[in-house]
Structure formats: structure tokens, C-alpha cells
Amino acid sequence: MIKIVENDIEKQDAFSIRKTVFVEEQGVPLDAEIDEYEDISKHIILYHDSEPAAVGRYRTYNNGYAKVERVAVLKPYRKYGYGKKVMNFINLKAKEDGYLGTVLNGQSHAKGFYEKLGYVAEGAEFLEENIPHYHMTLSFD
Predict the structure, then answer these.
(1) Any bridge partners for residue 52, and if so which?
(2) Is the pTM here over 0.90, yes or no?
(3) What is the CA radius of gyration of the chain?
(4) Which parts pass through the membrane (predicted)?
């Protein structure tokens, strides 16, 4: 089941996934992972047999685009296509919300994943929290 987070339990499930993937696995500081955009973002969670498995969020960015952030899948669920499901769900909801497309700062190791979803890298690789990233855009037209 995939859905927009609607209550505190689902929000805690989402934060737990993010803490595991970004803080514990990738070494991102917790105070950088939990940021000022939490309350204005739409958080998405995917459950596998009632267990939290994958997350993402999106928020208003600029020029009519939404920004996708914090997409993560727990290790035991990384072979199920859940990252793609989360991204497709986010893009569907963003389109329904009237956005022209979505942008993201994707980790460089996932660049090919995002390109398969239609994203185009813009500019040079850069570091965010000491992790290489690319700025990428998907237009809905």
C-alpha cells in the first residue's frame, strides 16, 4: 500500500526509514536530515505487508515545479521496485496538484534510476552532505 502520510504513526514510520537509510547507512547528520520543510511537505509512505518499506516527499519549489526529496527504500525491500513506485506516486500527485513537473537533487549512484523515469540531469555533479548529487528535472508536458 502506498499513500500520503495522514497521521503521526505514519509520519514516525516515514522518519524511521529516513533515519535508517540517510543517517545510519549514509552518515547524514540527523539535524540535516530532519529540516525546516517537514511541515510544508507532502510525505509519502509505502508499506510491504503492513511494514514500512519506502518513503519520499514533495513540496512547492519554484516556477510551478515541486521538489522531490528524501526518497528512500529500506535494504530488505530494494529489489521490489518500490523506489519507482514511490516516484511514480509522487509525480502523479504532483501533477494532480497542478505542478508543471518535479525537480530533485538525486544521489549520483541513482542518476540512471531517475533517468529511466524521465528525469534529465542539469549542470555538473555537486556535493550535498558530502554525497555526490545531480540536479534533475522532469516536465509533465
Answers:
(1) 47
(2) yes
(3) 14
(4) none
